Amino acid sequence: MKNLTMLMPADPRGCGFYRILQPGRAFAKSIGSKAIETCHMPRAEEWGRYKFDLVLTQRQFEVNQYRHWCEYSARHPDLPIYMDFDDLLWAPHPGSTFNLSRDRVQCMDQTVQFAHHLVASTQDMADALWERYRRDAFVLPNMISEREFRPVRARENGKKLRVIWAGGNTHAPDLHQIIPVVQSTTTKYEWVFFGFVPDALKGIVKVAPETEMKDYLRSVHAQGAHVGIAPLLDIPFNRCKSHLKILEYGALGLPTIATDIAPYKDSPGILIKKPRVSDWLRALSVMEDENTRMEIADKCQEYSRSYCIERPENISIIQQAYGHKAA
To answer: How far is 83 from 73, CA to CA, in rounded Å?
Structure first.
């Protein structure tokens, strides 16, 4: 019988796609396995029918999930479970919309015991897992597909610099630093917010609604932006985040301006050391020079290409993450 890999993301959107579906599909293809995908918990008796070789999952913090793994583990104690973490779920920003209750965090802590292996998106995340659970985690960085890449686009003569931010409402606290920057430059630059928009900026920026994951980067690219921004507060939760936003911007040919903290420190874009309005304005003024902007864009795209999931060396990292031994 052909090998089977179970891919069980929390949902098929950003986190589920980049952390479970995309690497899981690439892994299964690379070893000749078949991937079975579901966002719903199969009943425990169903597992025996499929005869999976391993299970990739994430964000297990609901009571029904814990009960499922209790029953599952009793029936199939030897089937490897790889549990992935790409956020410091137990320590979000107090103002974030994603804030787990104490009971859900406790449930997650209990469920982790059923995982045979832990996988983390960054070394900082792996270190945090060690501090909490005293367990090692394999670091599997986020990657991006070659099919998402677009040529670096020149700005037409006389056209305003168009600056884009793309993300969801969990970043609301991170965006506070950029609000006065936008408010003071609405006549100088064109601002596009893709997804969440702070109340203070509604009516003065262009709003592009979020789309399904399969259309996401194509829709971001369609906004015709010249620069991508990635502001983050310097807090433990953000220091454990990944460089995914930088990879996405770079793939689309956008130079980046980002906060100078752990996820973005290796980025070739402009890094903001302190979240001051003057620093953001200075970085934006650098991007007004087209030659400089294009040069930074090329470097950002090359950085993203080093994380293409199709590269043999990156496929090898994925295989190692999921316990595959080279023949």
So the answer is: 14
In the block, residue with structure tokens 């930074």: 296
Using a cut of 0.90, tell me whether the model's pTM lies above it: yes
Helix (H) or strand (E) holding 214: none
Neighbouring C-beta atoms of residue 265, cutoff 10 Å: 12
Tell me the Cα Rg of the chain.
21
Residue 78: is it exposed, middle or buried by C-beta count within 10 angstroms (0-12/13-18/19+)? exposed
Residue-wise pLDDT tens digits, 171-200: 899 999 999 999 999 999 999 999 899 999
Neighbouring-strand partners of residue 36:
6
Domains identified in the chain and CATH numbers:
4-143+309-321 (3.40.50.2000), 146-305 (3.40.50.2000)
Helices within the chain (DSSP H only)? 14-16, 22-31, 44-50, 63-75, 102-112, 123-133, 179-183, 216-221, 236-239, 244-251, 277-287, 290-305, 312-321
12 with 62: CB under 8 angstroms? Answer: no
Cα within 13 Å of Cα(36), Cβ side: 17
Structure tokens belonging to residue 196:
């969440």
